Every structure is written in structure tokens, then in C-alpha cells.
Amino acid sequence: MSDFASRHVGPRGQDRELMLGSVKVRDLDALVARAMPNVISTPPSAKKLPSAATEAEVAAELTEIAANNTIRTSMIGQGFYDTETPAVIRRCVLENPSWYTAYTPYQPEISQGRLEALLNFQTMVSELTAMDIAGASLLDESTAAAEAIALAARTTKRQRIAVDEDLFAQTRAVIETRCHGLDIEIVPVRVDSALDLEGCAGLLVQYPGATGRMMTAAQYRGLADSIHRAGGLFIMVADLLACSIVTPPGELGADIAAGTAQRFGVPMGGGGPHAGYIACQEKLKRNLPGRIVGVSRDSQGNPAYRLALQTREQHIRREKATSNICTAQSLLAIMASMYAVYHGPTGLRSIAERVHGQARALACNLSSLGVRIRYTRFFDTITASVPNKAEVIRAALLEENITVFLVDSDTLRISTDECTKDETRVSVVRAFSRVIEGTNELVDMDQFSLGEEIRRSSDFLPQATFHRYHSETEMMRYMHRLAEKDYALDRGMIPLGSCTMKLNAAVEVSAISYSGFARIHPFAPESDRLGYRRLTQDLEAWLAEITGYDSVSLQPNAGSQGEFAGLLAIRRYHDSKGEKGRRICLIPASAHGTNAASAVMAGFRVVVVKTAKDGSIDLSDLTQKIEDFSGQIGAIMLTYPSTHGTFEPQVVEVTDLVHAAGGQVYIDGANLNALVGYARPGAFGGDVSHLNLHKTFAIPHGGGGPGVGPVAAKSHLAPFLPGFPGGSRHDWPGSGAVSSAPYGSASILPISWAYIRLLGLEGLREATATAVLAANYVAARLEPSIPVLYRGPGGFVGHECILDVRPLKEKYGVTVDDVAKRLIDYGFHAPTMSFPVAGTLMVEPTESESLEELDRFCDAMESIAEEASRVGSEWPADDNPLQGAPHTAHSLLVGGWDHPYSQEVAAYPDALIARKKGRDPEYVHRLIESKYWVPVGRIDAPWGDRNLQCSCPPPEAFED
């Protein structure tokens, strides 16, 4: 193994030999050869992938690549702004594995820290926008605006949307893409002229506009009245920072507000990742897309956080889901929330006033030169009219190391931000002066006033959290206290099937803080983004070779968006051939829930294919469905290996059947961790796939995002991959834009680049084979006590396995929830629950976990099965360690102990089983010493849904 591979891959030496012996194979290659059908084995070429490098070499290369990006003072704006990330937040959140290696908070008892931080985010958004309820983040501003339109269409049952022309170009592009898939007609309007809103689901405006223009409060309220009279909803894509000093959307009649929290301490990063937001009035809350954090209570009656209204989640609702978004941008939402906590309302107002003041001063400076400023009411962006001189002035500004937004040969847009200084304005004026003969007229600054009528008069963020932590000492302690409540990879194994919680190596992650990646605007001149060009070209080429496809787009900023982009490419391909009737998408019953939701978003009708008894696709049902919908088959969506954890031997037969029927084959790349280096989807029948870089290629999950979901396709679908306005590697429009920036979440691409560069082909193969070995070792160890539901060829599983704990319920009344919560007492995050089979646990150990950690998990599962056998005989059904789990320190120490099992059984079951098995005393002591103490007892989720509370309680809640 390479130097890095020996650190990335957990089992080594004798440990590996022991594991191989337990599954009765001689080496890793022999294991893969027996588990994986030979027909799909088509390894990539070592000549087209980089050789393995050391950590020092990769760090040096990334430093050099970042240096090839040119950092300038960005005044481009248009949705992306320079911002000061407080060092305490960068150090304690962005660069802290306790935050970035955590998973989505599906197990709320061990996610209280990040859930509180996300509740702060929701509170921040709802307070700044003056809306009743906000979600826990979306993917970016453009997709948030598109989700707002879909929400309006669902609510009103209408398929037309009025969109103001003063909108960021990238937002308009994403809206067009989404509306095409949903067959929603876009009606372009100018809100400063007469409006015909008949039959429209809503009216969408940017606030402030892309030009910087702001109208009066009365005019915005008039727009709200107009669309309401027409039976539609008023949507405002609002700048959160501006909302601290201008009248918020909720006070202007808006029904929905959407946008981005990027200005709140999150670097531009070449376009992302950034936390989008969406908020709405009370009447719309149950149709809100994405996630909502809510307050409930635990088994002791104490307040506790959890995800609210979970029936909206895609794995449950599938094609009936309100959105295909599975995870969003939790890590960035947490950063933004901490920025608001650190600055508080007074600090936010101060920053906003500085930004606005610099814009006003610049407008005065340029007006004194004779430059016409098109709109006199603005927040941070001025539109300068300079007939026939815009390009010359932009070049002069580049000489001053400043970039601005070129609209056309006559017009420039210039935006101020938190980092704009007086010296910046002097440089801008100097550049203009070299091109324009100034008049040096005195200009009254009052002419560029917002006007009292549009200024915010209401207070915001009165909650105590936004007033307590303004010193760095208190802020550091607050973030540490929240992180301590959570279970992340820095504590132990997270064996979530299908989610691939592998090592996120420090050398891979560290590059995202480099200023050469962080401070680059996505619309900066191409010559300023040479480092990103090298990075993206390398990554596209490597991923194409690894997957066997011809072309790759890195634009999708989540796996869900990669799915959508791939399916939309299929739809556009069929349309280009005059086959618009191919709108059936076949989806196996075991598929990821986002598959069905994405298919509907792309305009397909979902037809489910049954599962055979061995967990594979039922070929007879597939054949029948193809016959039933002859001439209508557009695609099939496969996950390979299947979500049941096996390499289905008939996969090529399945792809051949669909191709013969005229359909395309979409292979979901969620389980690519079992294929890399050994098999390529594009070589065994796939036409298009998305890849989860936040799974197989080591980008951290960040508590529920960020993610990257590149889409890879064969040459005939390549012209239909995502495009971007203004041009990118893929010609516009392709299938349209799917995110706010040409390369989506560009700043985290160095992580996957580094992962491939560090491992090389041999290291990638080592990682894949070890992941398969780890899953088979767990299956072999646990089979005597907990059956494995499905196995593939030769009796082997893939890189994950499904443990069937349903017999525990049948025999002893112990549910899958009981098992999951009891695992917390043993110091584990539970595996994936009840997916894809209700009442089971799907386990994916990954290649990064050591044999000791795998054995610790197996010990825990065996012990829980043994504990279950004692329920009903030794312990009552309503009072036993499983039903009472998880156990808090408070429940053990306060108020007396009156349970039929001991406090030691409740608190230290892992140490007890280790001692019983004769493990080394030092190991037993370590288990006791490193005990994870869950902060809350079992949470009552239904109570929280019945009593929905999705923001921090106001001060008056504590008056008593």
C-alpha cells in the first residue's frame, strides 16, 4: 500500500489476515472475485489515473494549485460576496472534525449540538425575514428560489409563475431548468410596469434586485396585493444581511422568502458550498421542502431537538415527496448561525450599515466624475452607466486588483461587502478617472438614501442565544459545548449503510481553508481561476476513467441534484430524437427514496419494479413492465451494488433489456465505494450516473451536508449535461443549470482531488476491497446471533449488509428503535434503520475502521441480542435496558434507581461484555474512560409534531 493508503485503510497485517480467514478467502482480490460478478469486472487504466503521492506531496501540490488562482478585491457581487469568517468559527467549526465528520441528525439523541445550531439558523432566518417558519437550509440561493416556486405551484395547483427580470442570471437559469422538468411556465415580467398575473401560482422578485434597485415599501406591498388578488403567492429572494436594515419580506406581504446565508461568514469558495434558506408563512409550513428542526421532549420530559415532520422525508414519500433534497448544507448553515450568534443583532446591523455606507459613498464618488448611477435607492450594488466604456473601465479596475460585474459594453455593476474599505473606493475612483474625464461636481449623499420608508423599524433576534456569546472565550466554549453533545467520526464508528462514513483525512480537508480556494468569486475572470481550472479538469478526467463514462459535470452540488441532472439529460436526449412519449422511469422497490422524487422532478412517471426473494430485481416483473409500457420506457434507475447490499449477478441482463426497449440506464453512484478500481458503471451498461463525492470520495458529511454529486455520462448524453449561463466547460444550455455556480461547490473539490491523488489506482482498489471485506467480516461474525437478510453470489455481501432484527420483535417485543437507541449506550451511532427493509439495520463499516472497532460493534450487537432474549423472562417488557435506552447520566444519578437492571448495565454495557469476553483490562478501562454520555433520553418525535416549535423560544418564554 502507498504511504497514505496504510493510514486510510483500517485493517492491516495480522488483523487483515484474521478477517480474510473468517470469510474463508486467501486475499482481497480473491474476495472481490467471488463477491462481484465477473461480467462487470472492468478496471480503469492506471495510465489515466495519477500515481499515489505522499501527504506532503499532495499538500504541496494543492498549495501550488491554490496559488494559481488570483485573489483580488471582488466587487462582482451578484449573489456572492467576500466576508470575514471569524477565526473562532473557522477553527472551532469548519476545521473541527467534531462538526465536519458528523452525520445527518436522524438519531437525534446523539445530535443535540448540531440540532441546536440548526435551530439557531432557522431562528436567524425567520427573524431576519420576519416569516413564521424557516427550514434547516437548502443547497444554494438558486435552488432555494426554485424550491419556492415549486412550493407555490403545489399550494395553488397552478403551472405558471411570474418572474421579475431583475433577477440574478444564475437564479433565472436554475429556475428555468427546474420549471422545465415540472412543466411550469415562466412568465417574464417587469414589476415597475403593468402586470398580468392571471393564473400565476406566484410572483417572484429579487430583493434587492440584481441591478441593486430597491423600490419603496409601498411598491412591494402593492406587488403582494396584486398577486394575492390573482390567487397566487408573493416570493421574495431576499438578501439576509440587507434584511437587518431594510423592511423584511414578511412585513412587505411575502408568503415565501428564499435566498442564501453566504454573507454570514461563509467564504465565496469559487461558488460554494453555501447554505441556501427558505422560509414561509404558517399556512405553508407542511409543504415546506427540505428539513425542519423542531423542539420536542425526551423520556424525562426535558426539551430536546429533532427533525420535525419527518414523513416528508424522501425515503418515505418517494415520488410523493415535496422535493428530492435529501441533505442540504448543514455545516455551512451552522457556520452562518454561529456568525449571527457571535455578532448578534447589533453587530449584524453595524456590518450592514457599513456595507450600505460604502456603496452610497462610492455612488457619490462616481457621480462626481459624471458617471450616471442608474438607481438611487440600493443596498450594496450600484449600476453604473458608462456608454461604450465598460470594458475599458473593467480593465482599468483589474490593474487596481479589483473585479466588477460587466453587464454589457455600456454598463457595470459594482457591489460592496463586509471587506470593502475606504482604500477600495479610492482605487475604484482612480480606475474610473483614468477612463472618464471627471467633472468633480459636488454630489449630495442624501440622493442615494434608502429612505426611511423602506428602512427596517422592527427589532430582530431578541433570543438570549444571540446576546450571550460575543466574547471569543464564551463563543469558543459555546461551540465546544454543542460539539460535545454530538457523536461524530472523531468518537467512533458510524456504520450507516448506504452513507459511507469513511475517514475524511485532515490532509484532504485542510485545503478548503486556503485563501486561494476560499476567496475566489465564481464569476471572476477565467484568468483568475487557473487553479480551479486545473483542479476541475483533473477531477473530471479521473472520475470519467474511474466510472467508464465519457464526460463529467461537476456542477451538481448534491447527490439529489446529480440524479436530477442525469434524468433530465435522458429526457432531453429522448426529446431530441422526437420521442417525447418516453416518460416512464422504472425504479426497483429497493431504490433510494430520492430516485423516485428526482424522476418526478425531471418529468417522468415512476413505475416500481418488484424485488425477488433473494433481494435482486425481479426479472419477470421487469420484463412484464417493459411489455406493459412498450414504447414509453425512458429510463431505469439502478443502484449497484443494490441497496440490499449485494452484487446482483443479472445486472447486465437488466441493462440489456432496458436498452432493447429503447430506454436509458441510470446507475445511482451511491454505492460506488464497492466498485472503484474493480468495475465501472459505464462499462457494464450504464448510460449516466451521479457520484456522491461526500461518500466514496471522502468529502465530509458535515452533519447533513455539504455534498457534491457530479453527473457522468456516455458521449450520446454528454451534450445534455448541465450547462451554465456565461459559458463553462459544458456549452450552455445543455440541460440547463442545476446550481448557482458553474462548478457547484468548488471549494470542497480539493478534498476528492486529494483522495484520488493520495491513493492512486492501487490504493483505490485496496480501499474498495477492504470495504467489502469489512462488511463480510461483520456479516460472518454476527450471523449466529443476528441473521443477514440478503447475500449475493457465493454467499457474500457487497460493502454493506442488512441485519435482520425483526425476530427480536417477534420473540421478545424488542423493536429496531430499541436496538438503535441501546447502541448509543454501547457508544455507537446506529446503522441505517428500516431502509430499505422495514425493521432492519443496514450496516456499512467502510474500509477505514480497524478490526478492534469492528469487533467492538459486533460485540455490542451480540450483547444486545442477548439482552433482548432476557426481556419477558428476567426483565419486564416495559422496563428493561433496551426500552429504557439511551440512558443519561442524570437518569442514573438523580432521583434514585428503581429499575430491575443495574446502573452498570445501563451505563457501561460495552465494558461489561468486554470483561466477560476476557478482553485486556486496559481495553476495558479505555471503554469506561471514553464513555459517550448522551445528553437527552429517548425523544418523543410525535409529540413534537403535534406541538410544532421550530425556532428558539423568545425571552418571554422564560419570564416565569
From TrEMBL:
<dbReference type="InterPro" id="IPR015422">
    <property type="entry name" value="PyrdxlP-dep_Trfase_small"/>
</dbReference>
<feature type="domain" description="Glycine cleavage system P-protein N-terminal">
    <location>
        <begin position="7"/>
        <end position="429"/>
    </location>
</feature>
<dbReference type="InterPro" id="IPR020581">
    <property type="entry name" value="GDC_P"/>
</dbReference>
<comment type="similarity">
    <text>Belongs to the GcvP family.</text>
</comment>
<dbReference type="GO" id="GO:0005829">
    <property type="term" value="C:cytosol"/>
</dbReference>
<dbReference type="InterPro" id="IPR003437">
    <property type="entry name" value="GcvP"/>
</dbReference>
<comment type="function">
    <text>The glycine cleavage system catalyzes the degradation of glycine. The P protein binds the alpha-amino group of glycine through its pyridoxal phosphate cofactor; CO(2) is released and the remaining methylamine moiety is then transferred to the lipoamide cofactor of the H protein.</text>
</comment>
<dbReference type="GO" id="GO:0004375">
    <property type="term" value="F:glycine dehydrogenase (decarboxylating) activity"/>
</dbReference>
<dbReference type="Pfam" id="PF02347">
    <property type="entry name" value="GDC-P"/>
</dbReference>
<feature type="domain" description="Glycine dehydrogenase C-terminal">
    <location>
        <begin position="767"/>
        <end position="887"/>
    </location>
</feature>
<dbReference type="GO" id="GO:0019464">
    <property type="term" value="P:glycine decarboxylation via glycine cleavage system"/>
</dbReference>
<dbReference type="GO" id="GO:0030170">
    <property type="term" value="F:pyridoxal phosphate binding"/>
</dbReference>
<comment type="subunit">
    <text>The glycine cleavage system is composed of four proteins: P, T, L and H.</text>
</comment>
<keyword id="KW-0560">Oxidoreductase</keyword>
<feature type="modified residue" description="N6-(pyridoxal phosphate)lysine">
    <location>
        <position position="695"/>
    </location>
</feature>
<dbReference type="InterPro" id="IPR015424">
    <property type="entry name" value="PyrdxlP-dep_Trfase"/>
</dbReference>
<dbReference type="InterPro" id="IPR049315">
    <property type="entry name" value="GDC-P_N"/>
</dbReference>
<feature type="domain" description="Glycine cleavage system P-protein N-terminal">
    <location>
        <begin position="448"/>
        <end position="731"/>
    </location>
</feature>
<protein>
    <recommendedName>
        <fullName>glycine dehydrogenase (aminomethyl-transferring)</fullName>
        <ecNumber>1.4.4.2</ecNumber>
    </recommendedName>
</protein>
<dbReference type="InterPro" id="IPR049316">
    <property type="entry name" value="GDC-P_C"/>
</dbReference>
<dbReference type="Pfam" id="PF21478">
    <property type="entry name" value="GcvP2_C"/>
</dbReference>
<dbReference type="GO" id="GO:0005960">
    <property type="term" value="C:glycine cleavage complex"/>
</dbReference>
<dbReference type="InterPro" id="IPR015421">
    <property type="entry name" value="PyrdxlP-dep_Trfase_major"/>
</dbReference>
<dbReference type="GO" id="GO:0016594">
    <property type="term" value="F:glycine binding"/>
</dbReference>
<keyword id="KW-0663">Pyridoxal phosphate</keyword>
